[in-house]
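Quick one, tokens below:
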């Protein structure tokens, strides 16, 4: 209701325009912008007054929608923008009714929510009524979504049926496997004991036939031992020749020259001799008493020792050869240099043989060729094969138990919907990467190499439509990679998009029937149906038993 405190001429003009506005308002009446469900709130009382909906004020009913805001809650102006805070109802016949803020009434903009154009009625802006067209499109879209949801719900019912049946069969399977565990473990222990016994018997036999075996082995290794002995001898000759050269140098060089290179070599040689004195030289005869394998190993070891000596002695001579004073013409020095030169020429070619010797691999011991030996060998082989078989069987059963326990411990939702999808993998290619997820398993990102994005770590929220995969490869300068997998209803299960909203935090969108809504009450109907089916099955089973009993009695 307007209060008139302006001067008269203006008042007259205003009164006129107010009359025009009122006339409009009256044409459109107090119900403009009021939804049918609220219409009962917009009726005058017995004296033609009306109370604001918040009860704060009573005004003449004619002041409702008079383009002047009287009520604090704006409820007196549902059809004008005077208050701006209320709700304007668009009937949108042919589409869906909607409410917009009254501040958007007659603001010169055709609001999408008011497809009937009723929000712009002051004649300033013409908004055509497009509700039929928009409604038809919306209905088409609704039909499309509805048919996806119907088909999705049908498929999901299949998932649920499968999930529930699977849980029962997995539980039974687990029980069967657990019943088998004791039995296979006993069999495995038995096989292990038999294998130990066979090995022991074979060991005892081999111990008893040691000399016979050694004879066979010696025959096999003899050529190698001889070759290695020859090489060791040659190495010792070379080493001794270098030792004599250095001994001569030490004794015969002219001490008055004080040639530092010569002195250094001689004192190095002294150190070598001291160190040498602490070592025990291996004597060929000592080696001959060893079993052939050990003899061969000892020969190889000793050859390596001598080769190292040759290296040390040569280093001493070579050091002197490079730095000695040539002006002294010391004969002992010149003789040693000559030996060094000759040694270097011949050694380069002969040392190749030594390199070979060092890496010589011993041949496998030939099996003893006697019927008795064969008998033990066969018995051990058989026991080993039986043990392997028992062990494989036990492993398989334990593995089966672990796999079933893993599945039974997983949260597939209250109706087991997701049982159908466990370990099922899906890919999505974008321009740079291929993303993949194996549901309840791992998520990866790959291009030329693969990056782990995370392992299934649980559901987010209570709706069973968001999964988290965490603990992926650490991001450079950032967190461990992780995936949030958000599901929506679809008739197939597939990844429809992958984005990376935050660095190394990925968002997979997956459509699947598993989250399609099942119309209320149907789940229970399904349960009842299943109960009935179960009862029928049980009845048939009992009848079957009865039948068998009668048959047996006859
Ligand atoms: C790789 C990919 C990207 C990620 C960067 C972070 O290039 O895993 O998704 O953003 O590493 O450094």
């Amino acid at each position: 209701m307007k209060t008139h405190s302006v001067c008269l001429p203006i008042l007259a003009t205003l009164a006129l325009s107010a009359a025009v506005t009122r006339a409009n308002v009256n044409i459109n009446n107090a119900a403009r912008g009021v939804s049918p469900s609220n219409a009962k709130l917009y009726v005058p009382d017995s004296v033609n007054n009306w109370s604001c909906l918040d009860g704060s004020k009573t005004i003449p009913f004619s002041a409702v929608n008079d383009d002047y805001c009287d009520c604090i809650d704006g409820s007196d102006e549902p059809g004008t923008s005077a208050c701006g805070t209320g709700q304007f109802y668009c009937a949108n016949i042919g589409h869906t009714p909607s409410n917009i803020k009254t501040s958007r009434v007659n603001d010169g903009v055709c609001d999408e929510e008011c497809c009937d154009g009723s929000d712009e009625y002051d004649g300033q802006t013409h908004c055509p009524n497009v509700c039929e067209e928009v409604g038809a499109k919306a209905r088409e879209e609704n039909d499309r979504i509805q048919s996806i949801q119907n088909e999705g719900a049908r498929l999901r019912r299949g998932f649920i049926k499968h999930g529930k049946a699977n849980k029962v069969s997995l539980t039974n399977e687990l029980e069967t496997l657990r019943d088998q565990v004791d039995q296979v473990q006993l069999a495995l222990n038995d096989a292990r004991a038999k294998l130990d016994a066979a090995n022991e018997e074979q060991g005892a036999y081999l111990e008893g036939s040691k000399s016979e075996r050694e004879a066979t082995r010696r025959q096999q290794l003899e050529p190698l031992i001889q070759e290695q002995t020859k090489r060791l001898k040659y190495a010792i000759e070379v080493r001794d020749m270098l030792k004599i050269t250095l001994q001569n140098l030490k004794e015969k060089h002219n001490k008055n020259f004080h040639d530092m290179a010569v002195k250094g070599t001689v004192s190095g040689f002294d150190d070598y001799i001291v160190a040498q004195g602490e070592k025990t030289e291996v004597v060929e005869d000592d080696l001959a008493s060893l079993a052939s394998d050990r003899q061969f190993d000892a020969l190889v070891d000793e050859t390596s020792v001598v080769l190292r000596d040759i290296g040390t002695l040569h280093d001493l001579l070579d050091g002197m050869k490079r730095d000695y004073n040539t002006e002294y013409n010391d004969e002992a020095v010149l003789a040693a240099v000559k030996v060094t030169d000759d040694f270097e020429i011949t050694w380069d070619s002969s040392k190749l043989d030594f390199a070979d010797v060092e890496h010589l691999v011993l041949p496998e011991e030939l099996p003893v060729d006697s019927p008795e030996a064969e008998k033990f060998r066969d018995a051990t082989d058989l026991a080993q094969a039986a043990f392997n078989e028992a062990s494989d069987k036990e492993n398989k059963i334990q593995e089966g138990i672990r796999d079933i326990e893993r599945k039974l411990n997983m949260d597939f939702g209250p109706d087991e919907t997701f049982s159908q999808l466990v370990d099922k993998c899906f890919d999505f290619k974008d321009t740079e990467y291929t993303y993949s997820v194996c549901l309840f398993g791992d998520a990866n990102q790959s291009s030329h190499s693969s990056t782990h994005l995370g392992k299934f770590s649980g559901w987010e929220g209570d709706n069973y439509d968001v999964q988290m995969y965490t603990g992926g490869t650490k991001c450079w300068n950032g967190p461990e990679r992780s995936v949030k997998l958000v599901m929506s209803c679809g008739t197939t299960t597939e990844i429809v998009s992958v984005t990376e909203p935050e660095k190394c935090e990925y968002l997979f969108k997956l459509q699947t029937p598993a989250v399609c809504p099942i119309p209320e009450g149907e789940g229970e109907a399904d349960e009842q149906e299943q109960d009935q089916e179960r009862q029928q099955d049980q009845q048939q089973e009992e009848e079957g038993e009865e039948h068998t009993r009668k048959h047996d009695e006859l």
